[in-house]
Amino acid sequence: MLAATGAVGGALVRLLIGRGDEVIAVGRDSGRLARLPGGCKRRVADFTDRQSLRNALEDATLIAACGNAVHLPAILAALPPEGTQRLVVMGSTRCFSSVPDATAIAVREAEALLAALSLPSVLLLSAMIYGTGRSVLDRLAKLPVIAVPQGRSVQPIHVDDVAACLAAALERPAAVGSPIVVAGPTPIAYAQAVRRVAKGRFVLPVPPAALDLLGRVLGRSGIGAELRRLAENKSLDIGAMQSRLGVNPRPFDPPF
């Protein structure tokens, strides 16, 4: 498992170890690897160091890449010549955004690379992940006044449900193939989601057009791009997640 020390990777390690699977956890920080649950093998590797990555993957059969899809070319270059049975890669529903974004470009490129790959594989496109303490909702909850797009929705998914999707994608025959969106069960109004997280804070609904305009003024990256993405509606179809992965996500119900 690659990027095992991140929020998603850590959740997947806990899930697999808990059910008795053999896990090879790969990360670039030995200290963070040491804090993972007992029972897994730990290997230090960096996506920028091809040899360390090759060494880490030399006997891997089922590979889950839990980090940014931008690293897929490095992963493909480091795959062992034989023995690998499946590759599962985390992506983002940001690829559906109309706002120019490096992450979205990387996810689209990853989709093309996997489509041309003879190895059985699948790309999981995740909506906003909560339960990590580091989501957009967590950051918004720390502000004294929170501006949210009026009439817009979001479909967040809990980190443990993402881990369940990754585990299913590693083993279910139906998982292989076209990208699968992984998200919460139903869209929820952005204002409602923020109010559940940021109790006691003042939530200010703002017309999406105003957020989009402010984002354009602030620029194409950073806070400007984030404001423009906030203005987009996020309603996602999770039918493939349910049918191909067999995962039915929990309702959005913080605190987390």
Q: Number of DSSP helices? A: 11
Q: Tell me the total number of β-strands.
A: 12
> Uncertain spans, ≥5 residues at pLDDT below 50?
none
Name the helix and strand elements from N-terminus to C-terminus, one letter apiece. HEHEHEHEHEEHEEEHEEHEHHH
Strand content: 15-25%
Q: What's the helix and strand layout?
A:
Blueprint: H1 7-18, E1 24-27, H2 30-34, E2 41-44, H3 50-57, E3 62-65, H4 72-78, E4 86-92, H5 102-115, E5 121-126, E6 129-130, H6 136-140, E7 145-149, E8 153-154, E9 157-158, H7 159-171, E10 180-182, E11 188-189, H8 190-197, E12 202-206, H9 208-218, H10 223-230, H11 239-244
Parallel strand pairs: 1-2, 3-4, 4-5, 5-10, 6-9, 7-12
Antiparallel strand pairs: 8-11
Helix pairs in contact: 1-7, 3-4, 9-10
Describe, in short, the structure shown.
This protein is an alpha/beta fold and 256 residues long.
Protein described:
The chain is α/β, with parallel strands linked by helices. The protein is 38% helix and 18% strand. The strands form five sheets. A four-stranded parallel sheet has the order 3-4-5-10, sandwiched between helices. A two-stranded parallel ribbon has the order 1-2. Helix 1 packs across helix 7, helix 3 crosses helix 4 and helix 9 runs antiparallel to helix 10. The radius of gyration is 19 Å and the shape is globular. The two termini are 25 Å apart.
